[in-house]
């Protein structure tokens, strides 16, 4: 019900820019440029967790990008999913260079906790992933969302936890739903999330996918893409290229 009301209210109520608050525009040109204007690049958190896939990010998590992600995730400004999906699609392309010839790209979103989805009224990462898949298809790349990951046990709130604490908190927390391994075999898997902080969530997602598919995840194995990453990681990798 909450998600339905947000969808309707977004059509009839006055809007303001999700990035800077400018009235009567959902995302102004300046904030859109901050989200889409950079070059997606490979990023690595420090320290890098074991089993983390190769991750590409569209932007640094600061200023307008941070505001837009929070507006979508926490305030339910669902119309921003399209712009965020476009940014995520750019990060996917940067990491895969995929044309679809060997099968579709399978975007596998990292799942939010059920209590978080219930509190927000929507699953932000899945919504952004769906928008990204649509953007990729419009550009000629076969892509679809395969939401086969789920939490197998409760985890603590990640806020305030350090890198090592997050890894311990998430270890063994995800699994692929029954029959999901058959869906994953139909194309090239790209794990997706809205934000990379320590990398613990993506490393755990990679472990769960590897376990379901019957192989051991290797450091740097597989592909992942995110909308944003901490500014320090984004700048470090800007300077390395």
Automatic annotation (TrEMBL):
SUPFAM superfamilies: PRTase-like (SSF53271). InterPro entries: ComF/GntX_DNA_util-trans, PRTase-like. It comes from the Bacteria. Gene3D superfamilies: 3.40.50.2020. This is ComF family protein. It comes from Streptomyces gelaticus.
